[in-house]
Fold this sequence. Notes:
The chain is of the alpha/beta class and 227 residues long. It contains seven helices and eleven strands. It starts with a strand and ends in a 7-residue tail after the last helix.
Amino acid sequence: MYSLILLNGGIGSRVAADRPKQFLKINGISIIVYSLVAADSCSEIQEIIVNYPHGWLEKTQKIVKEYGIKKPVKYVEAGSTRHESVALMVQQCSHDNVIIHESARPMITSADFDALISHKSNNVSYMHEIPFTVAPVEPSTNRVTGYLDRNNLRNVQLPQKFTKSELESAHLKAKNEGLEFTEDATLLASMGFDVFFTEGSDNNFKVTTPVDVRIAGFLLSGNDSNE
């Protein structure tokens, strides 16, 4: 059985909206709802731990109630960083296995959760090939400093799954070393734990900008045929 950590605490400044982006509506439905419904339909997920930006608890609770989410839901106020938020939320997980997702990825389906759970390894992240060239640079001087082989790089996606004990241990090690990470697959790998990846999807992108909101609306409408 799994506990789901649903990251929902960002303020979405790059979307430049009048509210955190997870509360914007795509095709008439708040972005957070897509992840909640997908998780609620996954039998292996037995509880949902969702965080929220300061001042948005009642809105988050209202959405959970309005859409009839059946799984038990725990609410945790967001930390000052994503890293801190996960560390706070994992403490609320009741099960030995944890899935981490973020509401800003509304293309998720219950089948995606099922496929991740069925993977033979304990610590697994969706990742996807990078279809463009990336380069290391020195931002302060605009100098290109070398070369990266994109065959050995992946775009990190969510959801991810981990054993709770190893996730907690990795966060504790990072805290003791004064380190912060922007996601948890690289955190665990950097702290010495085995982490594997499974193939993600172009559709599984993070809604970050106004353009992303429009693309997600198009894809979620079902009108993505090439005909």
